[in-house]
């Protein structure tokens, strides 16, 4: 039985792999043109305070506005860009674009503008010897203060080898905040928190998903806020989709959250609007 199912799995698997490989090669080849023709866009997703739902920062999330396919997800093309190296050029563009946007919002909205701009940085970018210099020069040319920028890295990227750990230290020394993305997933180790200067823990959506269910579901979310508080870090709960989750996170001690409930990534979030986390009937009560 085992063999038969292996063979069946095999037969289904191989053509799929070929398709994916062909698909990836095509995407990779089209990326050069896409960069030259300006098909990439940066969308911004609010990161809000709990329980008020005030936008305190935004995360820059790249989109590919493909002439034929429409919007292509970064989940599809970032790994391809890492493999063919175009992430270095694309990443530099994203950094410039989002820092310029942060400054434009400061000019337009003043105090209502987000305090920080969070930018994802991949392993390949972090390994570039000149990356910390690039960050410094983009800050200088855009006029964004270093404290207004957050660089989001994953544990895999930090332990990517070469000078990635040193790069994180250099970026942090500029005054830029370091966020550890998707925390608790992948090859997580708490060792990392002692190895690099982390300011923000982004607690992965998977620990938020079942948080309002009875039983053990909230245990890890609870443990992670304790680690975060104990180390004096800021914790951001990722992927919050419901009022109930927001209320439970607040009850557990989370002060920052991000997710479709508060706002999807968009070209220009509404900074004037307050996405109230506190709704009639919700469990969150300010001051408790
Ligand atoms: P990430 O950095 O963990 O970003 C969060 C992802 O979760 C985003 O997906 C966001 O749209 C999605 N998300 C936010 N709230 C919710 C929610 O409530 N429910 C659900 N189901 N999803 C939610 P997105 O934009 O597709 O990006 C996927 C990943 O691609 C990112 O994960 C990040 O690792 C990478 N990525 C995106 N933009 C960039 C970029 O500019 N540079 C680099 N290097 N990587 C990027
Ligand atoms: Mg991120
Ligand atoms: Mg994340
Ligand atoms: Mg994530």
Automatic annotation (TrEMBL):
It comes from the Bacteria. Coiled coil: none annotated. Residues 24-279 form the EAL domain. This is EAL domain-containing protein. The lineage of its organism: Bacteria, Bacillati, Actinomycetota, Actinomycetes, Micromonosporales. The chain holds residues 460 to 747 of 747 of the full protein.
